[in-house]
# Entry
Amino acid sequence: MTAVLCGNDDVAAGVMRAAREAGRRIPGDLSVAGFDDVPVAAFPAPALTMVRLDFGGLGRSCFGLLHRLPDLAAPAPGPCDEPTPIVRESTGPHRGTSG
# Structure
């Protein structure tokens, strides 16, 4: 395994700690990315790469779709923002495989 995309920042922090305890270098041996982009993600060493998502906008869009179900002729809610990668120090280039 050369990379892990974690479902949230807490899991990513745990993966990074476990990798270090196993003697794996981040990002040299293992790239780690989280999903949330909490403010403290930029402070550990190495700083955690993230995927940022507008959860408030996503919630509003989902509620708008549910609210629209009784009347499908009603206008659909606008799209929410696309997820945004925030590249920091915990990820590196793909190393490829030999053989």
Q: What stands out?
A: DSSP finds two helices and four strands in the chain. The longest helix spans residues 55-68. The two ends are 16 Å apart (CA to CA). The chain has a mean pLDDT of 86.
